[in-house]
């Protein structure tokens, strides 16, 4: 592994967060789940559109698995977008807000963030190259008009004529502005196409577009973006919606509309070939009457089932199991060999397996023996121990194995206090989850 990637992994783990890259180096005990998600990617690559839900309690690694899906998707040529549900800046039932989060966060192997402009350039570049191969010179006075005509033709054909007229106008104007050297204005229009509402009215007028992308039009825009992504040479698009359980904390009417929006996405998924949605959520989100179970049409579509305690991995909900002691130990041993400032042989000599086992037991004991809730705290502590050894060649690891919880999340505080880990929010005066959108 490159030093830069190893340093990134350890910096993120010090902060108690999931790394953006390098996850595969210490992905342990999830081989079957990863294989199932690869199966879904292969289906979508073949022209399907679908939704998958990652189900798991606190500490099961939902966000880790979601980030791993992004890694595997980009490795397979997909564009991706990772959206965290927030009750502050994302009203999930408003598709214009969801669209803005998805498209502004678009990522590709070539452009890690804000990739829509690069995707458009690749698509238009492909059109130009095709015209040149047909014998038309790019110096021909009619070349730009031919490009625009081909652009219109492809958008109409790819979306079955459902691409919004303002979308086509905006993309045409992006091309024209770039050809005229007005790159800043072109970039502003790309921001408009990404869902931004902060684009000057004068520029929108020049492009011939009216207002901003509305909630009712947003999914049609997403269809157009999806088709452009594929024409730009990418396999398709994977959208991760992380922490869907946040919806449970929203006001009752908003909660109901948000759940109904998920139902609409599930119902429409097959009509977006090449698009995979991946949601993460807790069992409470799926099983409580104020969550998915309260929307019968959605619950019936994605209901989770086990057969004598054994679930199918291919059902809509993919259940992630809590960490056990052996899995936590394997992750630690993987990380021990990856520290950017400790040679693997030195790390193994100074921090042998038996000491790693002692640290696993110490952290687990600190959380009342609940191994499932300890990964974040354990990994932070383990990284700190490795850091101390890297800083001081004479430091003996035996004196470093005490554990004191720090930077606790509400869930970790609940375990320490012996409280139930998940509690659904009380209902309120606005009604339950069945409110129609």
Relevant CATH superfamily of the largest domain: P-loop containing nucleotide triphosphate hydrolases
Number of helical segments? Answer: 18
Poorly predicted tracts of residues = 423-437
Specify the overall morphology.
globular
Radius of gyration, in angstroms, nearest whole number: 25 Å
Largest sheet: 5 strands, parallel
CATH arch. level architecture of the largest domain: 3-Layer(aba) Sandwich
Tally of strands: 7
Give the helix level as a range of percent. 40-55%
Give me the side-by-side strand order of the main sheet: 2-3-4-1-7
**Whole-number average pLDDT?**
88
Give the H and E element order. HHEHEHHHHHHHEHEHHEEEHHHHH
- Under CATH at level 1, the class of the largest domain stands as Alpha Beta
End-to-end Cα distance, whole Å, is: 48 Å
- Assembly state: single chain
Reported by name, the CATH topology of the largest domain is Rossmann fold
Count of folded domains:
3
Counting helices, strands and paired strands, the structural category is alpha/beta
């Amino acid at each position: 592994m490159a030093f830069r990637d190893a340093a990134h992994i350890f910096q993120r783990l010090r902060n108690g967060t999931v790394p953006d890259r390098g996850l595969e180096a210490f992905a342990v005990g999830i081989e079957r789940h990863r294989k199932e998600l690869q199966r879904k990617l292969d289906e979508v690559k073949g022209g399907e559109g679908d939704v998958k839900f990652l189900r798991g309690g606190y500490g099961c690694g939902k966000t880790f698995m979601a980030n791993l899906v992004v890694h595997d998707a980009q490795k397979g040529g997909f564009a991706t977008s990772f959206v965290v549900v927030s009750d502050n800046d994302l009203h999930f039932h408003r598709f214009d807000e969801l669209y803005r989060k998805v498209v502004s966060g678009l990522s590709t192997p070539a452009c890690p963030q804000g990739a829509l402009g690069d995707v458009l350039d690749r698509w238009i570049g492909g059109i130009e190259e095709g015209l040149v191969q047909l014998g038309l010179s790019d110096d021909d006075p009619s070349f730009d008009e031919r490009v625009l005509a081909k652009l219109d033709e492809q958008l109409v054909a790819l979306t079955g004529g459902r691409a919004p007229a303002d979308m086509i106008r905006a993309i045409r104007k992006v091309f024209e502005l770039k050809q005229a050297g007005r790159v800043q204005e072109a970039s502003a229009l790309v921001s408009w196409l990404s869902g931004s509402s902060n684009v000057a009215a004068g520029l929108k007028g020049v492009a011939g577009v009216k207002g901003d992308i509305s909630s009712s039009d947003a999914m049609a825009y997403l269809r157009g973006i999806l088709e452009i992504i594929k024409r730009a040479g990418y396999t398709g698009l994977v959208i991760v919606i992380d922490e869907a359980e946040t919806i449970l904390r929203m006001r009752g009417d908003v909660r109901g509309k948000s759940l109904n929006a998920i139902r609409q996405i599930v119902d429409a998924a097959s009509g977006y070939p090449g698009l995979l949605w991946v949601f993460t959520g807790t069992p409470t989100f799926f099983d409580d009457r104020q969550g998915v179970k309260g929307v019968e049409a959605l619950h019936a579509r994605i209901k989770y089932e086990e057969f004598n305690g054994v679930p199918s991995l291919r059902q809509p909900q993919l259940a992630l199991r809590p960490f056990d002691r052996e899995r936590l130990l394997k992750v630690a041993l993987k990380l021990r060999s990856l520290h950017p400032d400790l040679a693997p042989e030195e790390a193994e000599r100074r921090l042998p397996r038996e000491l790693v086992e002692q640290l696993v037991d110490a952290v687990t004991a600190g959380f009342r023996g609940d191994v499932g809730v300890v990964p974040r705290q354990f990994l932070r502590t383990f990284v700190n121990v490795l850091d101390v050894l890297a800083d001081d060649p004479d430091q003996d690891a035996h004196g470093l194995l005490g554990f004191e919880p720090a930077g606790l999340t509400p869930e970790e505080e609940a375990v320490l206090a012996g409280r139930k880990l998940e509690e659904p929010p009380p209902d309120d005066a606005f009604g339950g989850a069945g409110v129609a959108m």
